[in-house]
Design a protein that fits this description.
It comes from Rickenella mellea. This is BTB domain-containing protein. This protein has 371 residues and is mainly α. The protein has two domains: 123 residues, Potassium Channel Kv1.1, Chain A; 196 residues, no CATH class. It is 63% helix and 5% strand. It contains 18 helices and four strands. A four-stranded mixed beta sheet has the order 1-3-2-4. α9 packs across α18 and α17 packs antiparallel against α18. The radius of gyration is 24 Å and the shape is globular. The protein starts with a strand and ends in a 16-residue tail after the last helix.
Length: 371
């Protein structure tokens, strides 16, 4: 093993505590770590006090990259009692902030992790941008961070985290469907590989299954699960019974979607005018109302390829109509998406119930009550 080298950013000769991570030494004042109130570090520091203090604390099994990401936050003075990140910390881009959040969770720095979870809704791109642009990695990392349980979160914070998690997942479905419509989503694409990092038991996987179900023919759909040269087919190699179960669940899911189609369209038609746009944006509201009325009518009367059961695609088209208003109004679009969230969440949770939990379709009463 090569001799350890000093980290270029986080090695302070005047520091009183040294950490060895892989083959890199980090050194700084102990109080920077103690302020995090991390059970992981508290145990290490207690053991270090009883041993040879000149010996570096070895963080076994951890990466220098993850510790470096954590150090980025440690070197700022954060007052956790104010429940907000300092402005200069927020200047970091969203990708970096997510890396810091994941590292904070790895090292049980739950105060910092919770603080970042609280600020993500303000730091992440707005929903219109998430639907139309941005990297898949941001989506996956935001969901991964929001999934991480945090014992320092208050009940109110947990509810806010859950609400934001749901909003991002609903937007993610729209983005996946948009991608499918534009470029025909392939099972060996970057998006599929990113989602599989979270595992096939994550609800993001259900969004892929939904797209394959809604926009693929029977033969093409089956090939996805039988061709072990693609990432999804490879998962089922040598697991024939599980593959057959998944194909059966996809068929069962389609029948359920057919049964729910008229309910979903009718409920979407029942949104109040006040849900369409911001107060006093009468012109936006009237334009969108006319577009949505024409869209709903066409879907109930025209027998197109997917029209009779592609509920999430129908909801995506509604969002597209709101996003494409001219002149574009970001504020009205955000309000419209919030109004659509309960409907998308009802279908999304049901898809997870069928395709991930592998349970029987839920009863008809999935739709949220009208306000």
């Amino acid at each position: 093993m090569p001799d350890p080298r000093h980290d270029l950013k986080f090695y302070d000769e005047n520091g009183d505590t040294c950490f060895l991570v892989e083959d890199i030494l980090f050194k700084f004042d102990r109080k920077k770590i103690e302020s995090q109130q991390s059970p992981y570090f508290n145990n290490l520091l207690d053991a270090h006090r009883k041993g040879a203090k000149e010996t570096p604390i070895h963080l076994a099994g951890k990466s220098a990259e993850s510790f470096g990401n954590l150090c980025f936050a440690l070197f700022y003075s954060i007052d956790f009692s104010k429940s907000k990140l300092p402005p200069f910390f927020l200047l970091s881009n969203i990708e970096h902030l997510l890396l810091v959040a994941k590292s904070a969770w790895i090292y049980e720095c739950f105060l910092l992790h919770n603080l970042i979870k609280n600020t993500l809704p303000d730091r992440a791109p707005p929903r219109g941008e998430l639907i139309s642009q941005g990297s898949w990695e941001i989506y996956v990392d935001v969901i991964a961070v929001m999934d991480q349980p945090n014992p320092k979160s208050s009940n109110q914070e947990k509810e806010e985290h859950k609400k934001y998690h749901s909003a991002v997942m609903n937007t993610f479905y729209s983005r996946v469907i948009r991608t499918q419509k534009e470029v025909h989503l392939e099972p060996d694409s970057l998006l599929v590989r990113e989602i599989l990092k979270l595992g096939t038991d994550h609800e993001m996987f259900a969004s892929l299954l939904y797209c394959f179900l809604a926009y693929r023919g029977e033969n093409s759909k089956e090939n996805i699960f039988t061709d072990d040269k693609n990432p999804i087919g490879g998962l089922y190699k040598g697991r024939g019974k599980e593959r057959e179960l998944m194909l059966a669940k996809l068929s069962e899911c389609r029948k359920w979607l057919v049964s729910q189609w008229p309910h979903g369209v009718e409920r979407a038609k029942s949104l109040k005018d006040s849900d369409y746009c911001l107060p006093n944006h009468i012109e936006c509201r009237n334009k969108l109302k006319r577009k949505l009325a024409a869209w709903h009518e066409s879907q109930l009367t025209e027998a197109t390829t997917h029209a009779l059961w592609d509920i999430m695609g129908h909801f995506y088209q509604m969002s597209y109509l709101a996003w494409s208003l001219e002149p574009q109004c970001t504020g009205c679009f955000e309000k419209f998406e919030e109004a659509m969230d309960p409907l998308r969440t009802a279908v999304r949770n049901s898809l997870k119930h069928i395709l991930i939990d592998l349970k029987s379709p839920p009863p008809d009463g999935i739709w949220p009550k009208l306000r």
